[in-house]
Design brief:
Length: 443
């Protein structure tokens, strides 16, 4: 994802206000009645806690994994988890009437499935969820049945993540924001909209008068809230190029994160990002990355947060930007159109609106205030995490999407913090598998 971003950076719409919406906040959100400028104290009055004792928010967004791909076999004592059946199928594109069943993926890395706007819409197929193998096969001649889209991992492959899910809170109803690839979803995460972008291209970020549309970082600056990106290469802040060029002082080396966490000097809003420029050894988990490398990086971030002097008032969210062409059995959910900018679709491409989420992706809440061993079934998308940040720091909504999003408050118990740190297994990397991934998918 950031390989293209790096090359573009080196080489050289405003949300309409929502109507006045008085009365029942839930009913107002359901009809997308709130808009840019609205505060979470009003839009979430029915679900907001009396206090939000969070002072530091750490955001880690990995890449391209669905909930079923990682956690369909997750069990949490006393909780229900909605995972796909192990034998769920998709059509076999090489055999009329044939099917490809889900299977336990034993490879640590594999070719990237089909993940574009057109691909994902066809994979979802109006909610039938039966286009994954067909699109995957069309993407890679080496996988003529598209079977790799149906592979899944379990606790034997991801022991740290499974333990983390049981130790803190995880959602089985968190969705990517858009049925598209990384840049589009990350723009929603940082701005509540993609400004019409449906692929990995830079959006227009200025109105007709040349003013930069607001985003999370302009809002944070206006509210004098400190923030920073700790990165191994180019920050995804670069997608908001009009902001990035003025805010280089907010970008830090990845290793500095661990120093600042230990010293208790992290900014109030923190993004931590691993690289995707190391092929099979990339820690961002974007296929063809070795999944164990990403798990190990995340484990190190969790350890830094939970041992930081800032831990008593911290909240960390771990999620994944998009579905990456991998199977999930739960159809997208209705979502509010963010603004009046229509999706920019290639000629002959799938015509659709920004009125649905993408597919389910994993999302964890890690905090002294996170409910221990809890599985959320509340529908959220990436703008729900954005709304959480806005709620904590009193920031106004950016678009209709984040204005009407439900922040993941149900994953927390703000009245009863637990400062203890659960014992978690080591996140190890099999050297043989890593060597194979690096050989097959070099930088």
């Amino acid at each position: 994802m950031r390989v293209a971003l790096l090359a573009l950076l080196v080489s050289a719409c405003s949300s309409s206000p929502g109507p006045s919406c008085a009365g029942d906040p839930a009913a107002c959100r359901a009809k997308c009645g709130y808009g840019s400028g609205d505060l979470a104290s009003a839009t979430l009055a029915d679900v907001a806690p009396s206090a939000l004792p969070i002072e530091t928010i750490v955001l880690v967004m990995q890449e391209n994994r669905t909930f079923d791909h990682y956690f369909s076999s997750l069990t949490v004592p006393g909780q229900t988890v909605d995972g796909a059946a192990p034998d769920a199928t998709n059509p076999d594109p090489t055999t009329p009437g044939g099917t490809i069943a889900r299977f336990h993926q034993t490879a640590a890395c594999f070719d990237n499935p089909a993940e574009s706007w057109d691909d994902v819409h066809r994979e979802i197929d109006g909610g039938a969820m039966d286009g994954f193998t067909t699109e995957g096969a069309a993407e890679d001649a080496n996988d003529p049945t598209g079977a790799r889209a149906m592979g899944y991992y379990d606790e034997t492959d991801l022991p740290f993540y499974y333990a983390l899910a049981r130790a803190f809170a995880i959602s089985d109803r968190h969705f990517s924001s858009v049925q598209a690839n990384s840049w589009t979803n990350r723009l929603f995460y940082m701005a509540g909209t993609s400004y019409g972008v449906t692929s990995n291209v830079f959006p227009n970020q200025k109105d007709a008068a040349g003013n930069v549309y607001p985003n999370l970082f302009t809002r944070l600056d206006a509210a004098h809230v400190t923030w920073g990106f700790y990165v191994q290469d180019v920050p995804t802040l670069g997608l908001l190029s009009s902001t990035y060029g003025h805010d280089l002082q907010h970008v830090f080396d990845f290793d500095q994160f661990f120093t600042d966490a230990a010293a208790g000097t992290l900014p109030q809003v923190v993004f931590v990002e691993g690289t995707d420029q190391m092929g099979g050894a990339s820690p961002d988990e974007d296929p063809p990355a070795d999944i164990e490398v990403g798990q190990q990086m995340v484990a190190s971030i969790v350890a830094a947060v939970t041992t930081s002097p800032q831990w008593p008032h911290a909240a960390m969210f771990l999620t994944y930007d998009e579905q990456g062409g991998l199977y999930d059995h739960v159809p997208p959910q209705p979502a509010c159109v963010p603004d009046d900018i229509a999706p920019i679709v290639d000629p002959g491409g799938v015509v659709a609106a920004f009125d649905q989420t993408g597919l389910r992706v994993p999302m964890f809440a890690i905090s002294p205030y996170a409910k221990r061993g809890y599985v959320s079934h509340v529908v959220t998308d990436h703008t729900s995490v954005l709304r959480f940040v806005e709620a904590v720091f009193g920031l106004p909504a950016l678009t209709h999407r984040d204005a009407n999003a439900v922040a993941p408050f149900d994953m927390f118990d703000f009245a009863h913090p637990d400062l203890s740190v659960p014992t978690l297994p080591d996140a190890t990397v099999d050297p043989t598998k890593l060597a194979d991934c690096k050989a097959k998918y070099p930088h």
